[in-house]
Automatic annotation (TrEMBL):
This is Glucose-6-phosphate 1-dehydrogenase. It comes from Nocardioides scoriae. The lineage of its organism: Bacteria, Bacillati, Actinomycetota, Actinomycetes, Propionibacteriales. Keywords: Carbohydrate metabolism, Glucose metabolism, NADP, Oxidoreductase. Substrate binds at H212, K216, E250, D269, K373. It catalyses: D-glucose 6-phosphate + NADP(+) = 6-phospho-D-glucono-1,5-lactone + NADPH + H(+). Pathway: Carbohydrate degradation; pentose phosphate pathway; D-ribulose 5-phosphate from D-glucose 6-phosphate (oxidative stage): step 1/3.
């Protein structure tokens, strides 16, 4: 079998029109993200608000470093970090030089590239809440014709104030893009408020709402698997699919982010965005072509078709859990309440739920979603469980015939498995045996997948919003989530406890077993 790695699956224009994204220019060295997406992007001034924070240091700067290494950042690209830390340019460069090795793999570390990369960096000290300090930022952005990226790696409550200030300082140009981190707000009302505030300054096409799951290679491959092959489409519906499972399990706890997490919880942190986006990609209709608005239009229709959890018993559809102390991958770990230093917290670190997409294609097909921290292992996958054969054709056979299952493994080992039933070789009668066709990305493509942020940051600079959430999508997702939070706001609600290192509370097993099904472990 030969597989070829051509241009990215996601284009930013109709097929047949030339675009920067699909241009076949190659870089001087092979790139982890494939030939077309590694073409140099336009020169840009990238302003990272929250440039000393966890996200910037752990994800954004390493991603930019890797794109620099692969020749994607032109010489004129500069990165301006802002925070209240009183760092000067040299101090910030030293900090990032020191931090980078902790967040890039040893084989990706190259001293010469680090030297070149840190030369691009500077730091402006400013407090978003104050008017002082902004002149320093204005001075760092002299070229109004250059692409300008304002990346808000800060709390969502600061998104509106930053936009207003950028406008007041005259920094918003036609070439500006605003990047907003998730979760966008806390609920529908705050999301509307933020969207209104940023929308008063930036056009919708300038706003990039990040959901980093959309930048994962395996997630983009889901689109290709569905729409660049013919054999799945006739089966991809309620006639043949029994149910769908989407799991994002983490073995990590909340780490140093307990302060943020305790006000958020798994429903806001993972389900409202990442898992619902995955559900959309599985359930959406084929767009006319895969382009910047067409995919988002189809995802929105799925969110709008989610059966509202209104007038139903929410508890029979959704299970919340919180981890207690336990053993994860052989290591003793603390309870969530100790991790988050919140002794009476009722924040959920686990959610399992059953959703339904009320449309012709999916009527009656449950979508089971599940995510949790401190689970027994880290794995994210989508399982398409097909219906059983309509009639037992081998009544006298030994062994078992299981329904077909397509498992799309998102992480850690990206790939795909198609579970089938085969005849075990032998001279006697027929013995049925479950087998699988396996596609491992690592073995097939022989190159590491880039980090999601690498891909997404380059798309921002290019101005390609396909893999970002549009305003209406974010709001539709919050709207669907609302009844769950309303139910959980009642005093009698408490998440069920599960020991760290397990698959979550028993109620999650009951949720699916009640329907005669079971989680794919
Ligand atoms: N960390 C992660 O893995 C992820 C984070 N996110 C989101 O990204 C955003 C940032 O998260 P994270 O990096 O973890 O947060 P941190 O608390 O680690 O960092 C916040 C940053 O914002 C700066 N900051 C805070 N208040 C102000 C202010 N008033 N004026 C100027 N700068 C300010 C801080 O610097 P200083 O205090 O020195 O001013 C710091 O650089 C959040 O919205 C979070 O939900 C989303 C997905 C993953
Ligand atoms: O957005 C978030 O995602 C991470 C999980 O991301 P992954 O790429 O490691 O699967 C999660 O840990 C974090 O709480 C959440 O904010």
């Amino acid at each position: 079998m030969s597989l070829h790695t051509g241009p990215s699956p996601v284009t930013d224009a109709r097929p047949g029109t030339a675009t920067a994204t699909t241009s076949p220019r190659s870089t001087s060295r092979p790139s982890a993200s494939g030939s077309s997406t590694a073409s140099p992007v336009p020169p840009a001034d990238i302003v990272v608000f929250g440039g000393t924070g966890d996200l910037a240091v752990r994800k954004l700067l390493p991603a930019l470093y890797l794109r620099d290494r692969d020749g994607q950042l032109p010489e004129q690209t500069r990165i301006v970090a802002t925070s209240r830390a009183g760092l000067d340019e040299a101090g910030y460069r030293d900090k990032i030089r020191g931090d980078l090795p902790g967040f890039v793999r040893d084989e990706d570390h190259d001293d010469a590239v680090v030297d070149r990369f840190v030369e691009r960096l500077t730091h402006v000290s400013l407090d978003i809440a104050d008017e002082d300090g902004w002149a320093g930022l204005v001075a760092e952005l002299p070229d109004a014709d250059k692409v300008r990226v304002f990346y808000l790696a800060i709390a969502p409550s600061l998104f509106g104030p930053v936009s207003d200030r950028l406008a007041a300082e005259g920094l918003v140009t036609a070439q500006s893009r605003l990047v907003l981190e998730k979760p966008l707000g806390h609920d529908l009302a705050s999301a509307l408020e933020i969207n209104d505030a940023v929308g008063a300054v930036f056009e919708e096409h300038q706003i990039f709402r990040i959901d980093h799951y959309l930048g994962k290679e395996s997630v983009q491959n889901l689109l290709v698997t569905r729409f660049a092959n013919t054999f799945l489409e006739p089966l991809w519906n309620a006639t043949w699919v029994d149910h769908v499972q989407i799991t994002a399990a983490e073995s990590l706890g909340v780490g140093t982010r307990g302060g943020y997490y305790d006000g958020s919880g798994a429903l806001r942190d993972m389900i409202q965005n990442h898992l619902l986006q995955l559900l959309c990609l599985v359930a959406m209709e084929p767009p006319t072509y895969v382009g910047r608005e067409t995919v988002r239009d189809e995802k929105l229709k799925v969110l709008q078709a989610l059966k509202p959890l209104v007038g139903v018993d929410v508890d029979s559809h959704v299970v919340a859990g919180q981890y207690t102390a336990g053993l994860v991958e052989g290591e003793a770990v603390k309870a969530y309440r100790d991790d988050a230093e919140a002794p009476a917290s009722t924040t959920e670190t686990f959610v399992a739920l059953k959703a339904e997409v009320s449309n012709w294609r999916w009527a009656g097909v449950p979508f089971y979603l599940r995510t949790g921290k401190r689970m027994e292992s880290r794995f994210s996958e989508i399982v398409i469980q097909f219906k059983d054969v309509p009639h037992p054709m081998f009544p006298d056979a030994d062994g078992v015939s299981e329904p077909n299952r397509l498992v799309i493994q998102l992480q850690p080992n990206e790939g795909m498995k198609l579970h089938l039933t085969a005849k075990e070789p032998g001279p006697g009668g027929i013995r049925l045996r479950p087998v699988s066709l396996d596609l491992s990305y690592a073995q097939t493509f022989d190159q590491p997948s880039p980090e999601a942020y690498e891909r997404l940051l380059m798309d921002v600079v290019r101005g390609n919003p396909t893999l970002f959430m549009r305003r209406d999508e974010v709001e539709a997702a919050w709207r669907w989530i609302e009844p769950i939070h309303e139910r959980w706001a009642r005093p009698e609600h408490a998440p069920r406890r599960y020991p760290a290192g397990t698959t979550g509370p028993f109620a999650a097993t009951t949720l699916i077993e009640r329907d005669g099904r079971s989680w794919h472990e």
